[in-house]
UniProtKB/TrEMBL annotation:
One of its GO terms (biological process) is carbohydrate catabolic process. The lineage of its organism: Bacteria, Bacillati, Bacillota, Bacilli, Lactobacillales. Belongs to the glycosyl hydrolase 1 family. GO terms for cellular component: cytosol. GO terms for molecular function: beta-glucosidase activity. Keywords: Glycosidase, Hydrolase. The keyword Ribosomal protein does not apply. InterPro entries: GH, GH_1_N_CS, Glyco_hydro_1. This is Beta-glucosidase.
Length: 478
């Protein structure tokens, strides 16, 4: 095995999916706080206000807010040397546009970061992980209003300055390329909070607004990267892309072309801007041809060039096939759709398992960008069974992760500059897509059900000790 000395091993979370404490210590409402529980066949509902008698998963989540010392100690026991987390913007600026931050919110993250360091972990912090304050949504319609750029910069400056001596690794926006989807979740960038499903009605009609909001967020990201380097030149700041690696379903030229267009428009576009500092010709042409090219204000082009990222971080769970054949079998369970690959097996939720696709992705990204790479989300969701003796036999998760770690090792051997791996959900947390607890990713089981009932007790799964040994051996003992 060829994992380099100092390789970053750990896990990844998002505040709205595991933190809880949604109304404590001055925190304001964020978009996820108005999303109910759903399911594959019953999408989550978005409510205009918090309604009595309705369960909102993010309000309590798994209550990391009150269990953080216990949970971080467990992560430390697994030998994590990095932990990816997000800061809830509305915990620092409750409405998003206050002039002064909420000290209680800052103090909470002081304590969490100190606890991580105490247990041997360096924090990797995402500034915006689908957690836009509702105040920003209601007053400004999210990033469609350029004034939000400066509000985000103010928030970022506050936390980056506060934690400048303790946090080296930062990510500006999580899976920012969702804003480029033809049927994107508009609430990712806060453009339309009243869309209630992952694929909202009217998304196509809002394309111009959506791409303007995406542009404004790209400018905000670039400004924060430049600012972060001024605060601490040692900061490593990255983009974060939802990498849906795709293949043409057949060698038919039409399939190959359609797959290329999907890869460039969804998977590569936002990363190209954040790494290279310019809109790629293929996407600029598309936007101009559709008369939806965003308004560039004076200085925007220079800002994008001055604020390129230091590392490319991404999520990888599965691959899809692309074809012009509308009747081809669909993949199941994922947010992107796509056609099924007849050579791959699928998980319980229909996600096709493809470790070789991760090796391919790492080689492709290294060739395209030639900067440090980090896999910051990867894992297997499964309806784990807690046995009477409080054990969980999750060999399927071990098998999944073993194969993906081998794929990373092979990519490193072939030249990929991979510096870290934070698997998704080291502790069971709320699903972003449905709000359920049933779909579990963690090495640590949390006794909690889809309706919020349960003791919240934590139990180690079989994979806990396995991953502990993987890290201790720097990937050799898998």
């Amino acid at each position: 095995m060829t994992f380099p000395k100092g390789f970053l091993w750990g896990g990844a979370t998002a505040a709205n999916q595991f933190e809880g404490g949604y109304a404590e210590d001055g925190r304001g409402l964020a978009v996820p706080d108005l999303k109910t529980v759903g399911g594959v066949k019953t999408p989550r509902r978005f409510t205009a206000t918090v309604e009595d008698g309705v369960y909102y998963p993010s309000h309590k989540a798994i209550d990391f807010y009150h269990h953080y010392k216990e949970d971080i100690k467990l992560f430390g026991e697994m030998n994590f040397n990095v932990f990816r987390m997000s800061i809830a913007w509305s915990r620092i600026f409750p409405q998003g546009d206050e002039l002064e931050p909420n000290e209680a919110g800052l103090k909470f993250y002081d304590d969490v970061i100190d606890e991580l360091i105490k247990n041997g972990m360096t924090p990797l912090i995402t500034l915006s992980h689908f957690e836009l304050p509702m105040g920003i949504v209601e007053k400004y319609n999210g990033f469609s209003d350029r004034r939000v750029i400066d509000l985000f910069v103010r928030y970022a400056k506050t936390v980056m300055t506060r934690y400048s001596s303790k946090v080296k690794y930062w990510i500006t926006f999580n899976e920012m390329n969702f804003g480029a989807m033809a049927h994107g979740e508009l609430t990712v960038l806060g453009m339309n909070p009243h869309d209630t499903t992952i694929y909202p009605d009217g998304a196509k009609e809002n394309e111009k607004v959506r791409f303007q909001a995406l542009h404004n967020a790209l400018v905000a990201s670039a400004k924060v990267v430049k600012l972060g380097h001024e605060i601490n030149p040692d900061f490593m700041i990255g983009c974060m892309i939802c990498h849906i690696t795709s293949y043409p379903l057949t060698p038919k030229p039409e399939d190959v072309l359609k797959r290329k267009e999907f890869d460039l428009s969804f998977t590569k576009f936002v990363g190209d801007v954040q790494v290279r500092g310019v809109y790629p010709t293929y996407m600029a042409t598309y936007l101009k041809n559709k008369d939806i090219f965003p308004v560039f204000e004076a200085g925007d082009a220079a800002i994008l060039q001055a604020g390129t990222v230091d590392m490319y971080t991404f999520s990888y769970y599965m691959t899809v096939c692309v074809t012009t054949d509308d009747d081809a079998a669909e993949t199941g369970g994922n947010l992107m759709g796509g056609k099924a690959n007849p050579y791959l097996k699928a998980s319980e939720w229909g996600w096709q398992v493809d470790p070789i696709g991760l090796e391919y992705t790492l080689i492709d990204l290294q060739d395209r960008y030639d900067i440090p790479l980090m896999v910051v989300e990867n894992g297997l969701g499964f309806a784990d069974e807690l046995k009477a003796d409080k054990t969980i036999e999750d060999d399927y998760r071990i098998d999944y992760m073993r194969d993906h770690i081998k794929a990373m090792d092979s990519a490193i051997e072939k030249g990929a500059n991979l510096i870290g791996y934070t698997m998704w959900g080291p502790i069971d947390l709320v699903s972003a897509g449905t709000g359920e607890m049933k779909k579990r990713y963690g090495f640590i089981y949390v006794d909690m059900n889809n309706d919020g009932s349960g003791s919240l007790n934590r139990y180690k799964k079989k994979s806990f000790d396995w991953y502990k040994e993987v890290i201790a051996s720097n990937g050799k003992n898998i």
